[in-house]
Specification:
Blueprint: H1 3-7, E1 36-42, E2 52-60, H2 64-75, E3 83-84, E4 93-101, H3 105-110, E5 117-125, E6 134-144, H4 151-164, E7 166-167, H5 180-191, H6 204-228, E8 240-243, E9 249-251, H7 255-263, E10 267-273, H8 283-295, E11 313-316, E12 318-319, E13 322-329, E14 332-340, H9 345-349
Parallel strand pairs: 1-4
Antiparallel strand pairs: 1-6, 2-4, 2-5, 3-4, 6-14, 7-12, 8-9, 8-10, 10-11, 13-14
Length: 371
């Protein structure tokens, strides 16, 4: 397996941007947790009745995995009993829904004492919260130290991105420090099992993240290749597109017809999140996808041993932010915006901020849900 090839996908600075000529500012991101605020937008609100307890939780400077482990210990339940729609940034202030069994209600009512964690609301619901059960996330990000004179330039960038979108790369949070999650994921694929004694000390959450890191790196490499060839916004025969309103996938048979629909925003181009049941494109688009997989030393059957975690899916090549606002602040410039689920704010920020903007404690936990 070609580890060095996959590690290229984790270097965001080396990946192409939507607006390479647009002005960007020097700033510090996540200099302090309160500089980066994320609020989950749920797919639905709890019904007010049922055998599950939904908790509206705020955490500060705490990773998603730590939140689950610490909360499970306080409630006296297995981590697997906690439902969540997506994991959130560590060095940040984040708010999201979690679900726990109704049996935890007495402990929750007495108060959950966890440093950096607050339960802001409680409600009953009929089912456990599942991964991906969210619409997206709202962000308020302070670009600390940015010159407020850059607001007009960044506002024009925001308008362009709202209209055209930006490359939907997975962020560095997906890959771990120095690509360690990619390395672990490849080791798991080589072993073909979770039960190898070599992984005894690695938790299920971390193993799941490691497999996802490999899938994410492969997607990044496919999108990079399409962009380098000038084909990231071009419909090819055999491409798999998705309807913008419903997400329903279909194969492009008449590229000229689908190109007009793509330009109008009715459909989106998608790339593969490889798995054992991946739907790959045909024709030239499929050749690119298969070439990336082969260069990595993998094929769809490589994921077969992990059927419940790596089935494979498709992901839009580009995503459009919503409700983008750029405002001057005494400490710099504030960006506020909404992104749909599975999209990384850190990737969008590349269009606004010069490289090297991460704060002193770079957040390397997953920002979003695991595919």
């Amino acid at each position: 397996m070609n580890r060095e090839y996959l590690l290229r996908a984790s270097d965001l600075d080396s990946l192409p941007r939507a607006l390479p000529e647009a002005p960007r500012v020097a700033a510090r991101i996540k200099d302090r947790p309160a500089d980066f605020v994320v609020e989950e937008v749920p797919a639905y609100l709890p019904a007010g009745e049922g055998s599950h307890l939904f908790l509206w939780v705020e955490k500060r400077d705490c990773s998603g995995g730590d939140l689950l482990r610490r909360l499970a210990a306080v409630l006296g339940i297995p981590v697997a009993d906690i439902g969540y729609a997506g994991t959130k940034d560590r060095r940040a202030v984040t708010r999201q829904w979690l679900s726990v069994p109704e049996s935890c209600e007495r402990v929750v009512s007495a108060g959950v004492a966890l440093e950096g964690v607050r339960v802001l609301g409680v409600a009953h619901h009929r089912n456990k919260l599942r991964l991906g059960h969210l619409r997206g996330n709202r962000f308020r990000i302070l670009l600390r130290g940015a010159d407020p004179a850059g607001v007009p330039d960044l506002a024009r960038t925001a308008e362009d991105l709202t209209r055209t979108g930006f490359p939907n790369f997975f962020g560095v949070q997906r890959f771990g420090r120095r690509g360690e999650s990619i390395a672990l994921g490849l080791d798991l694929l080589a072993a073909g099992t979770f039960n190898d004694p070599a992984f005894a000390r690695v938790g299920r959450f971390e193993r799941r993240m490691a497999l996802s890191a490999v899938q994410s790196a492969l997607f990044n490499l496919v999108l990079r290749e399409r962009m380098v060839r000038g084909l990231a916004r071009t419909v090819l025969a055999g491409d798999i597109l998705a309807r913008a309103d419903s997400g329903g996938p279909f194969e492009a048979v008449a590229p000229e017809v689908e190109q007009a629909r793509l330009d109008a925003g009715e459909v989106v181009l998608t790339g593969p999140v490889f798995g054992h049941r991946s739907r790959l494109a045909a024709g030239e688009a499929g050749a690119i996808e298969r070439a990336v997989l082969a260069e990595a030393g993998l094929d769809p059957s490589s994921f077969r041993a992990f059927t419940s975690l790596a089935r494979g899916t498709r992901r839009p090549f580009h995503v459009r932010p919503e409700d983008v606002r750029v405002e001057a602040d005494p400490a710099g410039i504030v960006l506020s915006f909404f992104l749909p689920k599975g999209t990384y704010a850190s990737v969008m920020l590349r269009e606004f901020v010069l490289p090297g903007a991460e704060g002193p404690a770079a957040d390397l936990a997953s920002e979003k849900e695991i595919e």
